[in-house]
Design goal:
By secondary structure, the chain is α+β, with helices and mostly antiparallel strands. It is built from 24 helices and 17 strands. The chain binds a DNA duplex through helix 11, helix 12, helix 13, strand 11 and helix 19.
DNA sequence: GTGAAGGGCCAC
DNA sequence: AAACGTGGCCCTTCAC
């Protein structure tokens, strides 16, 4: 396919090019860079195209040897990119917007992400890939050559082939969007795609902002844990060696404590009746009788801490900023939840020794806000159960309220045991728990567990109805949705009981977990707009929690804004149940 | 050497 | 022996 494109290398040409494109409603948008990381590489090209007319802007010709962000001749480009009047269509727009934000110093307005659109359409089904070439092949039936993508974009003179490749990637985007829109519209995904598109810029900024990690605090904690690991490891080696006859002749026989095969062998030699797996919840009952098992659990715990939360995370500190810039996948799960990696800031241990290492730099504060029991409120809203909703409206401790209703007693008479029961029930139902699992979790007999579940569902009959309806409908419809319309499709073998069961549990959970993700994404967009012009910077999100860093003097004001944005977002999707947000200002990430 | 699979465990 | 949902990371083991 031949296309018309123009290489822009001077201020006058840029001004004309931007004017020519400013009447278009939709612009294909792409960038080429010398690295994947905006803190490490240079932004070489920005490509914009209305489909027929494509401009390839060579930024090596701008900046005057200084920073691109300070070059006034780039103003027309910044204005065009920032404008909401032209939708910028990009594939994985988080990447392009990060480079533009960091190197050109402007937000991108009107983002349309064909990568996110393609993922929403696939609805968690099948193995379809979502790279641009894959999406073009699938929706347009054309083959896109991506071989220049990894070419050297730092050379002085770009080859014709490179510039043409760059132009084509942008030029095809308006057409890709049109094809995607047919499916987005037909599948009822317009609202959820808007939600996703509006979330791209906030996430791009969050990744650029990074989260400050106090290297010294982390190192001190790691040193403490390593001492514990060494001690527990030595003691465990000694205890395991007792089962090996010749150990005393040659000194201790070292085994690999991280090898569950070797550890299982050693424990069997000591006469420990080993279960099929050596997971903590299996070994726990044996720990009292066999001190060596208790020692193994102790070792596992500190080894996990030292290995998963050790030096590795320090290596992610970006030298230029001194901060952690993790990678967030906006649709990390089919439910719509984010996932996070490199490193995963969503799995930092809850213990204060770890959380306190993530702190506000001097003169700054962290504003930390999370939704209170958001998933249960969403379930209450879906089910419209009167009693369930009343438990929230009463404003009292929710698990106590549940206990009072389930056990038919006054809220003041609820014992800690009864509250704990209610809490585990409340969380269990969100995941589609069964009686046998609940029994093993609580120590009840199967009959007692069944009885308790029966009482629980009798207390909340409409919730029972909703969960049963979800389980029933998935068999015939094979799909379900969140409040925003986010779609999840299932394929399962209806003759396979476990496969059906898994689908039914997912059908109960997905709309709840996914609506929670919808709400978070709405909140991020509202917050992004509300933080403009303040010192507040989004630094982390964990499913139902948002962390903003700001100047100490503005912390109370930012706290108000954060809480307000989260409340409004919650109310957008949950109409029948009050939403509660807990917000506080702190020096570090502890509660 | 590299990568996939499986076990295990951290978060919500 | 997880029939309680969603992820990512570390380690060992094993195939290529």
């Amino acid at each position: 396919m031949e296309i018309y494109f123009q290489l822009v290398r001077d201020a006058e040409g840029l001004k004309t090019a931007c004017e020519e494109l400013s009447n278009a409603r939709f612009l294909g948008f792409d960038v080429e860079t010398t690295d994947l990381d905006p803190y490490k590489g240079d932004l070489r090209l920005v490509q914009l195209s209305d489909g027929a007319n494509t401009k390839v802007i060579d930024l090596k010709a701008f900046g005057g040897g200084g920073s691109l962000a300070a070059d006034p001749s780039l103003a027309p480009l910044r204005e065009l990119l920032a404008s909401n009047a032209q939708t910028k269509i990009a594939h994985n727009a988080k990447f392009d917007t990060k480079w533009v934000r960091h190197h050109l110093g402007t937000e991108v307005g009107g983002v349309y992400d064909t990568y996110l659109a393609s993922i929403l359409i696939s609805a968690g089904e099948g193995e379809r890939r979502h790279g641009l070439a894959d999406v073009v092949q699938y929706f347009l039936g054309r083959t896109l050559d991506k071989s220049e993508q990894v070419s050297d974009w730092g050379v002085d003179e770009l080859s014709h082939s490179q510039v043409e490749y760059a132009a084509k990637d942008a030029a095809i985007m308006p057409e890709v969007r049109e094809k995607l829109e047919e499916r987005i519209s037909a599948d009822g995904l317009t609202e959820v795609l808007r939600l996703e598109n509006e979330c791209v810029m906030p996430i791009a900024e969050m990744e650029l902002n990074g989260f400050y990690l106090d290297r010294e605090r982390w190192q001190e904690q790691l040193d403490r844990v390593r001492v514990l690991q060494k001690k527990a490891g030595d003691e465990l080696q000694d205890m395991l060696a007792a089962g090996v006859a010749q150990a005393s002749l040659f000194g201790r026989t070292e085994i690999n404590l991280d090898s569950q095969a070797q550890v299982t062998d050693a424990l069997l030699n000591l006469g420990v009746p080993m279960p099929n797996t050596t997971r903590a919840w299996e070994l726990q009952p044996l720990a009292e009788q066999y001190p060596v098992v208790a020692k193994l659990l102790e070792y596992r715990s500190v080894a996990k801490a030292a290995q998963s939360f050790g030096d590795n995370i320090l290596e992610f500190i970006e030298p230029k900023t001194g901060r952690i810039h993790a990678d967030f996948r906006q649709i990390g799960a089919p439910t719509g939840r984010f996932s996070c990696s490199s490193p995963n800031l969503q799995q930092i241990p809850h213990e204060a020794e770890y959380r306190r290492c993530f702190r506000a730099p001097d003169g700054r504060k962290l504003v930390i806000a999370d939704y209170s029991q958001i998933e249960l409120r969403i379930l209450a809203d879906f089910s419209e159960d009167k009693q369930f909703i009343e438990a929230f409206e009463s404003g009292q401790d929710f698990h106590s309220a549940t206990a009072a209703q389930v056990f038919g007693i006054a809220a003041d008479d609820v014992t800690p045991d009864q509250r704990s029961f209610a809490k585990r029930l409340n969380f269990g139902v969100v995941y589609g728990i069964g009686a046998s699992r609940f029994a093993s979790m609580t120590g009840l007999t199967l009959a007692e567990a069944e009885n308790t579940l029966r009482k629980y569902f009798a207390t909340y009959p409409r919730m029972d109805d909703w969960l049963r309806t979800q389980a029933r409908n998935i068999i015939t419809e094979r799909q379900t949705r969140t409040k925003s319309g986010r779609l999840a499709k299932f394929n399962f073998d209806e003759n396979d009981r476990s496969s059906v069961g898994a689908a039914q549990r997912y059908a109960k959970n997905m709309p709840i977990q996914g609506t929670s993700a919808d709400i978070l994404k709405r909140a991020l967009r509202l917050l992004h707009d509300d933080l403009r012009g303040t010192s507040g910077k989004l630094v982390n999100i964990v499913h139902d929690e948002i962390i903003v860093e700001c100047d100490a003097a503005e912390s109370e004001m930012i706290s108000e804004k954060l809480g307000s944005a989260m409340l409004r977002a919650g109310r957008d999707f949950v109409k029948r149940v009050p939403i509660k947000v807990d917000a506080h200002v702190a020096d570090d990430w502890t509660k």
